[in-house]
């Protein structure tokens, strides 16, 4: 085995795929005459590719139901309050400051799209993100409790830089579910950022939790120093349907 092939094998063992590809390319040897120059550019390529892979892995691990980018939003269709706040939220300062974002308003106004879009931006910026719906989170918490792995889940849940909890208000909880959700959201209060989307105004959250004391305490924790975005407005889906019907008649 010659030295070049031996280097390729070592790169496989050391998990350096970009450097391996660099070594395998004959043109690369011709372009970089000195060993120092060759090694430098090989390392630069490995670092760049590793960052690309890291971003992709963070997005994949975040558990997004679909890929929705902020650049895909039709901002002219967003509720006015959301459109005006979005440029600041895109800077992601709220994550650095450990603040929450609450997207509250009508169905179909872009709440989930904004939440996922901010989550993807956070992944690209190097933050660890987790997306879940409220119902999925409560079920996961109950399963963890029954399997005696709740503490392990709590430790993971606390370490995310950003947790996105979608669809608060679509289903109500029993006492166990409400208490588990309250406990885990309280774990993050003031320590890490959470985005919550809900179709219910705060004065109706008791319909979901069925406990005025718990509801008041949870609302207090979530809203403290939080960005509250008013998402009341016409539904994207209804507008799209109207446009489709109009175009179909032409």
TrEMBL record:
<feature type="domain" description="AAA+ ATPase">
    <location>
        <begin position="97"/>
        <end position="232"/>
    </location>
</feature>
<keyword id="KW-0067">ATP-binding</keyword>
<dbReference type="GO" id="GO:0005524">
    <property type="term" value="F:ATP binding"/>
</dbReference>
<dbReference type="InterPro" id="IPR027417">
    <property type="entry name" value="P-loop_NTPase"/>
</dbReference>
<dbReference type="Pfam" id="PF01695">
    <property type="entry name" value="IstB_IS21"/>
</dbReference>
<dbReference type="GO" id="GO:0006260">
    <property type="term" value="P:DNA replication"/>
</dbReference>
<protein>
    <submittedName>
        <fullName>AAA family ATPase</fullName>
    </submittedName>
</protein>
<keyword id="KW-0547">Nucleotide-binding</keyword>
<dbReference type="InterPro" id="IPR047661">
    <property type="entry name" value="IstB"/>
</dbReference>
<dbReference type="InterPro" id="IPR028350">
    <property type="entry name" value="DNAC/IstB-like"/>
</dbReference>
<comment type="similarity">
    <text>Belongs to the IS21/IS1162 putative ATP-binding protein family.</text>
</comment>
<dbReference type="InterPro" id="IPR003593">
    <property type="entry name" value="AAA+_ATPase"/>
</dbReference>
<dbReference type="InterPro" id="IPR002611">
    <property type="entry name" value="IstB_ATP-bd"/>
</dbReference>
């Amino acid at each position: 085995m010659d030295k070049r092939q031996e280097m390729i094998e070592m790169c496989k063992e050391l998990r350096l795929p970009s450097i391996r590809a660099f070594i395998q390319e004959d043109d690369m040897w011709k372009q970089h005459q000195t060993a120092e120059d060759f090694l430098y550019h090989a390392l630069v390529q490995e670092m760049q590719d590793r960052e690309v892979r890291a971003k992709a892995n963070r997005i994949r691990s975040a558990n997004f139901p679909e890929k929705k980018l902020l650049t895909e939003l039709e901002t002219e269709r967003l509720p006015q309050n959301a459109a005006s706040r979005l440029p600041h939220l895109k800077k992601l300062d709220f994550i650095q400051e450990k603040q929450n974002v609450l997207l509250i308003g009508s169905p179909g106004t872009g709440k989930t799209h904004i939440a996922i879009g901010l989550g993807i931006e956070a992944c690209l910026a190097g933050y660890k993100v987790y997306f879940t719906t409220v119902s999925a989170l409560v079920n996961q918490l109950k399963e963890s409790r029954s399997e005696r792995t709740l503490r392990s889940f709590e430790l993971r849940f606390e370490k995310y830089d950003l947790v996105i909890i979608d669809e608060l208000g679509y289903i109500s909880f029993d006492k166990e579910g409400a208490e588990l959700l309250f406990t885990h959201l309280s774990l993050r209060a003031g320590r890490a950022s959470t985005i919550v989307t809900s179709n219910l105004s705060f004065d109706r959250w008791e319909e979901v939790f069925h406990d005025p004391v718990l509801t008041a305490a949870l609302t207090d924790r979530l809203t403290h120093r939080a960005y509250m975005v008013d998402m009341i407005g016409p539904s994207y889906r209804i507008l799209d349907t109207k446009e489709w019907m109009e175009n179909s008649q032409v």
